């Protein structure tokens, strides 16, 4: 069950979504409300949404994962390298669903191992999450460069591209996958002991240890889950653009942090919910789409996101101080 504060936050975010939609529609009525615009958002929004949920999972324990974009790119590059090895002279176009399923498994395993490494550094070696994941993020980018030699890997199998560009009953497949991820993670965090223990560790680490929880083990599990979600986002990204490279999605890291915090996640740990993150994602996606239609510079948009993040964190801190 969601707390009263979380419910109020989600209602406020729903109102913000509606206001952004009305505002952007008023400024660009024909372009913004077109089916093409909404379909475009439905294809690229899920990969950012899954990265934001991954960030929320890391923040629930009081940590952060700055390596999620590196993990996503490494997952895509690993799958692309695997396809290249299997295809031979025939090219990747001849590969069927079997190799594609193998590529998905390989990408997810990469995400799990990357998360395991982050969890080990944080829980066993006691390195602060921000430094541990900043370092591993650079390591993952370096591995991508070694595997690719620098240029992007292009030409994935048709089945792989279908994950990022296909439709099921007229609904974009990435949007369906994002909905499934939201449902599963929401149930995991609210209906299982695993989710409750994650929040307890973030709320009061000492009390969690005294109550018998294995804090180190839970942190490793949380970062493995974060890594698997980041790899899933990497699959969607590489499938949508039919390519994988070490530096794709560079702007996603700041946006994922912003969406997680805006969605009600406490960066100090203990509080966060999937519905809030999804509503924050929709709000920022609508806003970003409107900015692009007004031809606002991408550099200015990054400035706006950064200032917005600082404002949201400052407002949350003020609310907690006022309530204490």
Layout of SSEs?
Blueprint lengths: L3 H24 L1 H4 L2 H26 L7 H20 L9 H27 L5 H20 L4 E2 L3 H8 L1 E2 L2 E2 H19 L1 H11 L1 H6 L4 H27 L1 E2 L7 H11 L11 H20 L4 H26 L1
Antiparallel strand pairs: 1-4, 2-3
Would you mind describing this structure in some detail?
- This protein is mainly α and 324 residues long.
- The chain contains 14 helices and 4 strands.
- The strands form 2 sheets. Strands 1-4 form a two-stranded antiparallel ribbon. Strands 2-3 form a two-stranded antiparallel sheet.
- The longest helix is centred in the middle third of the chain and has 27 residues.
SSE succession: HHHHHHEHEEHHHHEHHH
Q: How many alpha or pi helices?
A: 14
**Total beta strands:** 4
Output mean pLDDT: 86
- Poorly predicted runs are none
Computed Rg: 20 Å
Q: What is the rounded distance between the termini?
A: 23 Å
Q: Give the fraction of residues assigned to helices.
A: over 70%
Q: Return the structural class.
A: mainly alpha
Proportion of residues in extended strands? under 5%
Which overall shape is indicated by the principal axes computed on the Cα atoms?
Answer: globular
Largest sheet: 2 strands, antiparallel
Adjacency order of strands in the biggest sheet: 1-4
């Amino acid at each position: 069950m969601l707390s009263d504060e979380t419910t109020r936050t989600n209602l406020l975010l729903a109102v913000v979504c509606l206001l952004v939609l009305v505002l952007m529609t008023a400024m660009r009525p024909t372009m913004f409300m077109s089916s093409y615009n909404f379909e475009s958002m439905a294809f690229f929004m899920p990969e950012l949404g899954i990265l934001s949920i991954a960030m929320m999972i890391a923040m629930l324990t009081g940590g952060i994962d700055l390596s999620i974009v590196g993990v996503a790119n490494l997952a895509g590059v690993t799958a692309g390298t695997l396809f290249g090895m299997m295809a031979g002279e025939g090219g990747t176009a001849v590969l069927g669903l079997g190799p594609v399923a193998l590529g998905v498994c390989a990408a997810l395993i990469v995400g799990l191992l990357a998360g395991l490494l982050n969890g080990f550094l944080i829980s066993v070696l006691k390195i602060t999450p921000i430094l541990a994941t900043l370092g591993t993020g650079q390591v993952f980018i370096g591995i991508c460069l070694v595997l690719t030699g620098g240029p992007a890997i292009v030409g994935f199998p048709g089945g792989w591209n279908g994950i990022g560009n296909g439709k099921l009953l007229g609904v974009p497949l990435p949007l369906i996958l994002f909905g499934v991820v939201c449902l599963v993670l929401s149930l995991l965090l609210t209906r299982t002991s695993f989710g409750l223990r994650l929040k307890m560790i973030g709320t009061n680490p000492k009390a969690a240890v005294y109550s018998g929880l294995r804090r180190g083990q839970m942190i490793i599990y949380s970062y493995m889950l974060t890594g698997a979600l980041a790899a899933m986002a990497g699959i969607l990204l590489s499938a949508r653009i039919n390519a994988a490279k070490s530096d794709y999605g560079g702007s996603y890291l700041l946006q994922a942090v912003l969406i997680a915090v805006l969605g009600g996640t406490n960066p100090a740990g203990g509080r966060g919910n999937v519905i809030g993150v999804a509503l924050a994602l929709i709000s920022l996606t609508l806003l970003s789409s409107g900015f692009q239609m007004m031809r606002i510079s991408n550099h200015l948009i990054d400035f706006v996101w950064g200032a917005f993040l600082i404002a949201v964190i400052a407002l949350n801190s003020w609310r907690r101080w006022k309530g204490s």
